[in-house]
Amino acid sequence: MRERDLLDRLKDSSPVSEGTRNETSGLRLIALPALLAEPPEEEEWQWDGLMITGGTSVIAGKPKGGKSTLARQLAIQTAMGHSMLGRVCRRGPVIYIGIEEKRSRLAAIYREMPDLQPAELYLHIGPPPQNPLEALHLAVTEIKPVLVIIDPVLKFISVKDSNDYALMSAALAPIEVIARQSGAHIAMTHHMGKTDRDDGDQILGSTAILAAVDTALVLRRSESKRQLSSIQRFGDDLEPQIVELGESGLLQTGGSVENYEVRKAAEAIVIWLEDNPQAKEPEIRAAVEGKTRTLSLGLRWACDQNQVTRSGAGKSGSPYQYSVSQCLVPRSPVGEGTGNEHTQDSVPITANEVGNGELVEELTF
Fold first, then answer.
1. Predicted TM-score of the model (pTM)
2. Cβ contact 162:190 at 8 Å
3. Angle between the 3-12 and 165-182 helix axes, to the nearest 10 degrees?
4. What residue spans of 222-336 are helical by DSSP H?
5. Which backbone phi and psi does 61 adopt, to 5 degrees?
6. Among 181, 239, 334, 356, whose CB has the most other CB atoms within 10 angstroms?
7. In CATH, which of 1.10.10, 3.30.310, 1.20.144, 1.20.120 is domain 257-331+339-365?
8. 340-352: per-residue pLDDT in tens?
9. Considering the chain, what is the average pLDDT of its residues?
10. How far lies 184's CA from each of 95, 137, 139, 169, 213, in Å?
11. What CA dihedral angle connects 219, 221, 224 and 228, to 10 degrees?
């Protein structure tokens, strides 16, 4: 069945509200009073704050960037009604369409999670059927899932040119209709381009992909960490968060990217201060690599955690000086000093304290 035919059939099966006029042009017109008389629709979330029920999303990332890992674990946690990355998943049946997956590899991945093998997770592994959109419609009608994952979307739908706005828009339209009518959220994985851009421009292909979905989840990989952020049609955008694999093999959040960078800066400062005690803040910022703001916040966080102590009055003739806290410095044999002992003026400070005329924001971790 062609995409246009399926889309027409789906739209024809849509309920018609009172006050709707079916014009010969094909437009479904509703008078404003009739529209306002309809009960307001409550916003419900399939994945709290990120994926709305009856909506669509794209999970975008570069190859080997973690898209499929996130999608597979979202499928499991949803089928079991668990939380993921600190956000509640509405429980229900899940359909996972893994077009690039190898059957034995996928089975091995799930065997490593004996406590996470939900009965209501239904998988299609391998190439898509001959009529993928028709098959999707039938499967959703039969299984009644709360979540469908298509991994990856361009190998499920047939599009000659993914950069063509009209072609991509027409190909994705039936998926949008299936999601809206069934109440299932349909998430699709897709690649990002080589250039690292913002505002959704990093999603490979036509902007029709971003325009079609309610949520764009963007996975970025840098060095050894991955960042997850979102662009939302409903709700608030997710600010970049660190996403890590825990010891159990499950994804977990490492907090905001800024907080992560502040903690890393604090670690670097402590290491440098071990060889350079009684240093002033400008000396620390000049010696330790990083942004000025991040280093300043990292220094104050280290003080707040009692990893670094501050001495001095913070004024001319007695500037603030910083050293590694005694609790982190190895004890010397009795009778031998370290040259870095606590004094009455050496006390930890809090992360929101103002020093040397600088306004310091309070950090939350």
1. 0.73
2. no
3. 30
4. 257-275, 281-287, 292-304
5. -170, 165
6. 181
7. 1.10.10
8. 333 333 333 333 3
9. 82
10. 10, 11, 12, 20, 13
11. -20
